Amino acid sequence: MDLDKGNVYSEYGTFTHDALEKLLDGETTKEQTLENWQTYVAEWRNNPRAFQFDTSQIRDGYINNLTEYFDNITIPKHQGSFSNEKPVMTRIKGANGGTEVFVGYIDTEYTDEDGNLVLVDYKTSSKSSFSKSKLPEKSRQLRLYALGEHQTLDIPLDKIKCRFNMLKYCEVHFKQENGKWKTSVQERSKWVEKMKTKLTTKLRKDDDIQGFEMSELLDKAIAANSLACMPKNIQDQFFIQDYLIEIDINEDDLNELAKEVAEKCRDIRSFEAIPNLESYLEYTYPYDPDNYFDKKLCGYHTSDYFKEKEGLLEDIEPQADLDKVNDDMVDFGDIFSSQESDDVFNELFG
DNA sequence: CCAAGGGTAGCCATGTGCTT
DNA sequence: AAGCACATGGCTACCCTTGG
């Protein structure tokens, strides 16, 4: 059954991934990438049938932050070329013997200056869902890729780096009054505003700047989200970088992950073997139209399949792009019964 | 999925009093 | 005047919950 209905986040996320892929493959320049983004947003705004954000605040935050990203793309220092959407195969021992084989696609892989193999996963989502306690779960897919590259390329684990690049955010580095440097993570479109108190402290110490000039300078910098109008010595006390969340890779964790994934595969297979699964689910997890997740995000309950079945045809929303699919990873262990592979993947990593 | 708000713990800038 | 220890208030990161 095709449940790939999509939502505004998957539309924007897909565009963003494609744009970065073209840039790192050398097909486009940074300037073209920014232009393509602006065109994409403009067309989205003009398309009344497009998926919508839930509120204007969410929309503006999302678009403004990503616009700042596209306007300030930094290409990491690297040796050789970038691989984008590179397939990687991972084999793990099945819970009931045999081998589970996964194939997935890494957003970006490259070798850094120190010879480390770097695996990058781009995220356009909010960092709240990537807090420390949620990271082990969020990083399962990435860690499985790391295990796969460790297996196939025979690269030691300590030479493999895994990270999420949280595109909506940046790391602000600033010099404290005691001379020490510190880091703060901020939404890209608001980082100067968030530094207002620090900028004020520094400006106050500058004898050449009068009180009225200060607030003018601050307003100007905040409006432009840039310190370009500030005195040089103040500019030198700030810089921004991509906000990367590093995922620690070690043998014990990966062994545990492989075990968990193998058990999950076993559980999913037995789950899918339940007779009359759909009736079972309707009874066990009934659709709640007041639940935001059910109504807007759940792949099953937002699908045309479900709506047609339930006679909710008036709820069927415009389809922005029928061709886009999001099959990040396929379970090759089940290649001969591939029907269930997407479901297995979604259960594991969705 | 998102933002917002509450609570908590830890860090930092600042001021004060004291000493050298 | 400069250095130090300490208290204070402010700020921030982090986590969790709530509600759309």
TrEMBL record:
Secretion signal, residue range per the UniProt entry: none
InterPro entries in alphabetical order: PDDEXK-like_dom_sf, PDDEXK_AddAB-type
Domain PD-(D/E)XK endonuclease-like, residue spans: 11-274
Record's keyword annotation contains Ubl conjugation: no
Keywords for the protein's UniProt record, in alphabetical order: ATP-binding, DNA damage, DNA repair, DNA-binding, Helicase, Hydrolase, Nucleotide-binding
Pfam families: PDDEXK_1
GO molecular function, one term: helicase activity
One record GO biological process: DNA repair
Protein name in UniProt: PD-(D/E)XK endonuclease-like domain-containing protein
Organism: Ligilactobacillus agilis
